[in-house]
Amino acid sequence: xxxxxxxxxxxxxxxxxxxxxxxxxxxxxxxxxxxxxxxxxxxxxxxxxxxxxxxxxxxxxxxxxxxxxxxxxxxxxxxxxxxxxxxxxxxxxxxxxxxxxxxxxxxxxxxxxxxxxxxxxxxxxxxxxxxxxxxxxxxxxxxxxxxxxxxxxxxxxxxxxxxxxxxxxxxxxxxxxxxxxxxxxxxxxxxxxxxxxxxxxxxxxxxxxxxxxxxxxxxxxxxxxxxxxxxxxxxxxxxxxxxxxxxxxxxxxxxxxxxxxxxxxxxxxxxxxxxxxxxxxxxxxxxxxxxxxxxxxxxxxxxxxxxxxxxxxxxxxxxxxxxxxxxxxxxxxxxxxx
Length: 338
Prior knowledge:
The protein is α/β, with parallel strands linked by helices. It has helices at residues 32-40, 47-64, 71-79, 86-102, 107-137, 163-172, 189-200, 213-219, 244-253, 285-288, 329-336, and strands at 5-8, 11-15, 26-29, 145-148, 178-182, 205-208, 222-227, 231-233, 238-241, 258-261, 267-268, 289-290, 293-294, 307-310, 317-320, 323-325. The protein contains eleven helices and 16 strands.
């Protein structure tokens, strides 16, 4: 299994996803500020993975803090890293609850309890992803190609993956499938990460550019689309990596099922619809440069939203560890969190 992130005596160890696939390098964060920068710079990315990283960052920060008074500063620093993925805030809130229960205890007990909770969040995430895989495997058609966008695999989680977890479970059940991965501009998570993961597992995979998705969806070769999510509103609107909306529209036009795989912690039922989801805006250089090489004239104006919102009418089903939700999502999603 790919080890995305681990707690060690030396610090929080994570695979540097900015270096893949050229180099498989692990970095050790020895302070909560370094964990925050790793999230911000996408050394670690993917909604569940950054939730685990935030929990470990809090535990690491408190291990080094002189007193428990530093707790809220640590939480606020990590919460300010990336605004869209709700798992980040879910994990921070969970650590806050633990701290609230323990705050009257000696600092050494608080530290030990926070470390244990962060490690538990990691283990739970792996088990949740495996359950998502089992719940979604039956939806994957045998003998067809599956299209995915961005990376929702082991690298985006503590291990196994959400969308790729469903694909892994379908393959493990004996289904004969192959995967088309969109390159996912501008950060190339599909090209760099998804293909790397699928090759690692010896699952047949083909890389396509983002603007080829419509061609192949129209061809009849694609049996379904499956993606992850960074936040899901109460009505079933889904925030995911930029370009997901386009793929969903093309899938519906060509009568191809469009599935979203995500843990229940990605549901944000306090938000009525996708219009209320904050969309992260990232640096212009991610668009004007590819792996440090300029591909646009100097001074080019750039818009670089990291995510878009797919309206719920394009989503065939949402696969979670507690079951598969189908429209109307305003009724089916609340049942998953009861």
